[in-house]
Amino acid sequence: MTRSAPRWLAVSIALLIPTAASRLHAQAGTPVSLTLGDAMQRAIAASHRLEEGWARAEAASAVVDQRHAVQLPRLNGMGGYTRTNHIDPFGVPLPNSQLRIIYPDIPDNYRTRLDAQWPIYTGGRLQALERAARTDATAAALDIQAVQTDLRAETARAYWTLVSVSESLRVVERSLTQVEAHLRDARNRFDAGLVPPSDVLSVEAQQARQQMLLE
Prior knowledge:
The structure is a single chain. This protein is α+β, with helices and mostly antiparallel strands. The protein has two domains: 132 residues, no CATH class; 45 residues, no CATH class. The chain contains five helices and four strands, in the order αααββββαα. Strand 2 and strand 3 form a beta hairpin.
């Protein structure tokens, strides 16, 4: 006799099917066959905790670059252009009969500027900030390794739990099949007058116990 999976097992399969290894059926799913290694890879690929860890590590690495860039020389360039109206040149005559122009007509005016800044001495503050940022980046990388280790451990635990549950279910189903066959035999013997009613009741109690284990 074929039995459907109990409700609690269906819930377990629905929750753990990404990490399952044996071919099982959920109430509204399709057969999935995975090894333990495949289950771990899927768990790592779908983990939001691991994505958060990578994001934190990238942010910490960006802070390291920022702290280091502050210590490098900085160049600031600026350029400008101004257009003015034409004016009549103004000048004064010189003793040698030449005209000395004081205010010439220059309508196009250009301006450029270049600054260089380099922190020569900061009392070690910038270096300390960079070391702290590198320490944070290292800690973020170690957090990623810890999350990966936890994911593998949790996946392996869920994997073997599901395998153990499925095997236990198979054992209970086989036991129930044997008890049902024994019950039919006991009822036939009772109908033939070979056994008392207590024997039939005892087998029915065993059947009820096995049925309870499946619920």
